[in-house]
Structure formats: structure tokens, C-alpha cells
Design brief:
The chain is of the alpha/beta class and 468 residues long. Helices cover 42% and strands 13% of the residues. The protein contains 16 helices and 15 strands. In the C-terminal section; belongs to the class-I pyridoxal-phosphate-dependent aminotransferase family. InterPro entries: Aminotransferase_I/II_large, HTH_trans_reg/aminotransferase, PyrdxlP-dep_Trfase, PyrdxlP-dep_Trfase_major, PyrdxlP-dep_Trfase_small, Tscrpt_reg_HTH_GntR, WH-like_DNA-bd_sf, WH_DNA-bd_sf.
Length: 468
């Protein structure tokens, strides 16, 4: 069929958005009725004089607005009133702005212009002074000796993580390090314990490597020692994977006493520890890793990414000496060796103190953003650290996380629910995670937080409370 959307088009908007909104107006006027099949992309494109790609994007936008439903092999249809997405259709408002979505959904450090300048200056310096092996070496697999020596010194001095250069492996970011550590001691079908809410990358890794992942009760600090002890006794896990500092998504951080308790439990049960410590530089005062308490039975992973630049995929994995012969072949199989140029930048910054200066600036920027979030969301329950990337926001009244996420998207704000971080199928917490670093301009962050606060200050629309 051919539909005439020309009377409903607004030329002042991006074409794809104008078409999606024209569909909305045609539906509201009654010209397009539920159950109507929309014309193929090419036919509509020719009719209104746009590209096929523009129509494809417009249909996708209309589906996000709840106006239509794409059915594989059948086409795109106006949502029927008895469709199970009726509530989505009825609650769909038109997007508030044509500007890019305000992104509060991704874990990302604040990247001010000074960080970019640091990187450019480092590349200029290395153009004249980089170690010659940086561009030609393909061995040793674990990383170039001078880079491992510098890393080992820093891990000892800054983090209190014992070990020699031979115990350190350079990895392409923290996620790569976690994968190498787990695959070194965990086999297909083995059981691994972690926090009940944990980084979604670990959940994806369990599916990729085929090990079982079971969640353990957490509180405001992180994993609960008594619950961990009971789970170790009951399930006899092969390993425990923990985030000791600023757990994603809650921000929970284990204090020194809790770390002592956990180390004692793992040592008593003879369980391997894989410690995710990638947020450690965001804490003003260093916290000794759990791994430092049981180094012969623990893998420690950290990186520079969260405190500097996302593209600096410089990860550091400390491996028990007894396990190096398992870990190094896995490094070779997955990437041969970590990218030497990234570590030459990291080596330069560790040597001249740039890492500490950037980390300090990151903490100051995040503290400013946390204070901003506290002012705007003061009437709503929040959990966060003073220098954390995230706010773990409680929802008031009858709000549900998915409802807020959908309405926030219509208001031009992207947020994250608890669902991606849930280890097991259970009722999701009525919370959302707000990430404060991805928007470089604090004014856009403030605008996004205010839009969320405005939504939360009202009850959700009635149709959003329909169970379907």
C-alpha cells in the first residue's frame, strides 16, 4: 500500500524523525488504524523522496516509540489494540529533542580536553624516544620487560600488590585480564561464585566459557562474608570472582576489615580468587587488594582505563607463579601479546607521574558530578561513592525500572536497569544505574538528571502500570 504522510511531515526536523512523527500524527488522526501494514521501505522512500536508509531508520524509531511492530518476513505493522505491546503504544510520547541522547547508561570516565592533550603529547614524545622493541617485538608474550618492570613497581608502591615483574602479565584492558585469569583455573561446567549483582561482562563470560555462575548476597559494602562462607561450604566452587572496589552497578566497596574476612574464608576453603580491581584509582585512599592477603591463591586484575582514557587498554594481571604456565598460553591464543604501544604510553605516564595527576583530576571531576546528582536527586534514595562513576538510584512509589528507562528514552536520556547485572533469575531491584562520566559537558549531564528528576517527581502514567 501507499500512505500519504506528506501532510504530516515537518521539514524542520531530521528526515527520519520527521517520518516517525508523521506516522504518530497519522495514527492519532485515525488515517492509519491498528493492524495496518506499512508500505515496504523502498516504496515509501520513493513516494516521499528520501533514501531507503532514511525510511529504515524512521521505522526503527517508530518501533522504539511503540507505534509499530516489525515482523520478520511479514513487514511492519501499526500496533493492534489487542497486541501485547498496547501499553507501549498508548504511553508513547514523541521524542523531546532531535539532539543526541544524553548518555547516562555507559561506564565511562570523564574525558576533559586535557586528557586528549596528554595523549597527543605522549605520542609526540614517543615518536622520538620509544623503546625500539615497541614497534617490532612479538615476544615475550607477557609484555616487554621494561614495561613489566615499571608496572610491577607501580603495583607494589601504589596498590600494595606484591609480586615481581615475572608475575605480571600485560593485558588488553581489565576484561581481557579477567578472562585470562578465569580460564586459567576454571573449566567448562565448573561453578564460580560472585556478587548477586555483578559486572555484566562476567555474566557474558560465563556463557562464553561455559562455567556456572552463582550469585552471593551483597550489602552496602559488597559481598557478605557469612553468605560467602556458607556458599563455599555448600557449593564447593572452583573460584570466586569479586569486585573489591566500586562494584558495578552499586558502587559498593569493601573496607579493610571485610577484605580480611573474605581472604580468610577463601584461604580456609582453598578457593581461587579472581579480583576485579579496575576502579581502584578512583578511590582517594589506596585500599590493599584482597589478593595481597592471599597472593599464592589469587589473580589480581586492574587497569588504567577508568581513570584515564577508555582507549588506553592497559590492563595488569598479577598471576600466582604456579599458574603462569596456564595463563601465558591463553594470552597467546587470545591476542598473542597486549598492544605494546598502549603500554609504552602507560609506561611513560607511570614514570613521569601523569597517571596520578590524571587520576586525581578524574576524582575531582567525578566528585563534582556526584555532588550535582545529589542536589538534583536529593529527594530520592541513592547509593554511591564520592568519586564513583555511578549513582545507584532507588525508584519511588509505583515506578518500575523498565518503565522509567522507556520514558527516559522518550525524554532523550539513556539509563540502565539492574537486569544486565543480575546473575540469577529473580525479581529485579527497583533501581536504575546512572553513569556520570560519558557526557563530557557537565551542562548536558545536569539537563539529563533534571529530566529524570522531573519524571520521578510524578507517578508513572496509568497505562504503565498495566500488567501484560
Amino acid at each position: 500500500m501507499t500512505i500519504d504522510l506528506l501532510p504530516y511531515l515537518d521539514d524542520s526536523q531530521p528526515k527520519y524523525l520527521a517520518i516517525a512523527r508523521a506516522l504518530s500524527r497519522a495514527i492519532r488522526s485515525g488515517e492509519l488504524t491498528p493492524g495496518t501494514r506499512l508500505p515496504p521501505h523502498r516504496q515509501l522512500a520513493e513516494h516521499i523522496g528520501v533514501s531507503v536508509q532514511t525510511v529504515s531508520r524512521a521505522y526503527s524509531q517508530a518501533e522504539k516509540m511503540g507505534l509499530v511492530q516489525a515482523r520478520v518476513g511479514s513487514g511492519t505493522w501499526i500496533n493492534a489494540l489487542d497486541d501485547n505491546r498496547e501499553s507501549a503504544y498508548l504511553r508513547a510520547g514523541e521524542p523531546r529533542t532531535e539532539q543526541a541522547v544524553i548518555d547516562l547508561s555507559i561506564a565511562h570516565p570523564v574525558c576533559p580536553p586535557s586528557h586528549d592533550q596528554h595523549f597527543r603529547d605522549a605520542l609526540r614524545t614517543l615518536a622520538d624516544s620509544a623503546h625500539p622493541d615497541v614497534f617490532t617485538a612479538c615476544r615475550p608474550i607477557a609484555g616487554l620487560p621494561h614495561q613489566r618492570e615499571r608496572a610491577s613497581w607501580w603495583l607494589n608502591e601504589r596498590l600494595g600488590m606484591p609480586g615481581e615483574a615475572d608475575d605480571r602479565i600485560l593485558t588488553n584492558g581489565g576484561a581481557h585480564g579477567i578472562m585470562l585469569a578465569i580460564s586459567s583455573v576454571v573449566q567448562h561446567g565448573d561453578l564460580v561464585l560472585t556478587e548477586a549483582l555483578t559486572d555484566h561482562g562476567l555474566i557474558a563470560l560465563s556463557r562464553t566459557l561455559g562455567f556456572q555462575l552463582r550469585g552471593v548476597t551483597i550489602d552496602s559494602q559488597g559481598i557478605v562474608p557469612d553468605a560467602l562462607d556458607a556458599a563455599c561450604h555448600r557449593f564447593k566452587p572452583r573460584a570466586v570472582c569479586l569486585t573489591s572496589c566500586q562494584l558495578n552497578p552499586t558502587g559498593a566497596t569493601l573496607d579493610e576489615t571485610r577484605r580480611d574476612e573474605i581472604a580468610a574464608i577463601l584461604e580456609r576453603h582453598g578457593v581461587w580468587l579472581i579480583e576485579d580491581d579496575v576502579h581502584t584509582l578512583l578511590e582517594p585512599e589506596p585500599l590493599m587488594p584482597i589478593s595481597a592477603r592471599i597472593p599464592s591463591h589469587a589473580f589480581h586484575v586492574t587497569s588504567l582505563t577508568k581513570a584515564t582514557l577508555p582507549g588506553l587498554r592497559a590492563g595488569y594481571l598479577t598471576v600466582p607463579r604456579s599458574q603462569l604456565h596456564h595463563t601465558l598460553p591463553r594470552l597467546r591464543a587470545t591476542s598473542w601479546m597486549a598492544t605494546p604501544l598502549c603500554f609504552e604510553v602507560a609506561n611513560l605516564w607511570l614514570e613521569d607521574g601523569t597517571i596520578e595527576r590524571m587520576a586525581q583530576q578524574q576524582r575531582e571531576l567525578l566528585a563534582e558530578r556526584q555532588q550535582l546528582a545529589a542536589r538534583i536527586l536529593h529527594s530520592h534514595g541513592r547509593a554511591s561513592r564520592p568519586t564513583s562513576l555511578h549513582v545507584w538510584l532507588s525508584l519511588p512509589g509505583s515506578w518500575r525500572a523498565e518503565e522509567l528507562q522507556q520514558l527516559a528514552e522518550q525524554e532523550g536520556v539513556a539509563i540502565t536497569t539492574a537486569t544486565p547485572f543480575m546473575v540469577e533469575q529473580s525479581p529485579a531491584p527497583r533501581r536504575v544505574r546512572l553513569s556520570l562520566g560519558a557526557e563530557p559537558e557537565i551542562e548536558r549531564l545536569e539537563d539529563g538528571l533534571k529530566r529524570l528528576a522531573s519524571l520521578l517527581d510524578d507517578a508513572p502514567p496509568p497505562m504503565m502500570q498495566i500488567v501484560y
